[in-house]
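Hi U.,

Before I forget, here's the chain from the pilot set. I'm dumping it here mostly so it's searchable later in email.
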Amino acid sequence: MTDLVAITRIAVGGDGVGRLSDGRVVFVPRTVPGDRIRLRPESLQRHRNFARAEAGEIVEAGPGRVAPPCPHYVHDHCGGCQLQHVAYDEQLKAKRAIVGDSLRRIGKLKVEDPEVVEALEEWRYRSKISMEAKPTAGRPDGLTVGLHPFDRSNFVFPLADCHITDFRLMALWRELRSRLALLPQPLTRLTLRLDREERRHIIAESAGEPWLNPDELRRALLGAVEGELVCWWQPVDGAARVVSGPATGFPATAFEQVNPGMGMITRRWAVEQLGDVRGQTVWDLYGGIGDTAALLVERGASVVSVDADEKAVSWGRTRLPAARFIAARAEDVLPSLPAPHAVVVNPPRAGLHWDVSLRLTSEPVPKLVYISCDPATLARDLQRLNVNYEVTAVRAFDLFPQTAHVETVAVLEAA
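Structure:
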């Protein structure tokens, strides 16, 4: 048996953190602060400065430990969630600490752990789910469609239900599971999405011939699934296109927060931090389908929204003619844009491109709001911007309950 390990906190990614008897930090999935555990000896992987292991025996459970309601989380080690075993109040504490630690340790900022806005719903909030498909001998369709275990990334278990995904998408999945043969073959990935007009989207990715019979699937689902259904086919390494159903409306392949209600709360708070923007030019960088731009236009700003996704930009132009939309990478077009009074950035997980950071530091704007989905890259970028900006406010938003992910908004003013 291994030594007892006391778990003291939750790290980025959701693993519990303790120390081995040799003083080395050890990361242990599915543990909570206050747990006293014995590690599975065969799982222990020692590295130079840290170790990883899995919990064997829970000798004493921490006060924040709860029973996860999802069978996949327990029996299949589903990697989609990391914190179902943690009480929700403790999840919020962990996320506050993760953001604060990243800003202090990586960003070198003197800030407290930020306030975190709790989610509207702890369960059934996701408007999108993506599943892997793997050929499997012995199954009725010769195919397994589901998710990955956190400890076996090359394996896929068949999904019955996802407790953080909207009931309406899971109802679609229940009907679709028995009709996998009607999807394009060989299927590699399947995404189900619910748009803001309550259409259901099936996005099927395959490595073979185009999807030749999507209308057959739509007819088979008529009456069994509520709402309008749109089928998309996406070749591997290619662009998705509608193959059955209305081709106009929301572009299901465009980026949108999987928790739309909390996404709106986050953006609204971010835009409010700019103050009075009437008649002012505001850049909305990495603006996607224009949700932030719409709030800025509502407040009287002259908005320039930039995003590399042409479909997202096209839909933004249709719904918001009052804003100027540009389909391009932000770093490529900044020199051609009108000088801004304020800037909102909402980059992908990789953070700001270096050229964007350089432009914002070489020609500072009075106010800059940074919406981030990754505390580590946010902290890195804030350190770069710290040469001539001061961070005046930080707030976290729990868009992803039961997972270790957290959205953060930082407000900066020119120093």
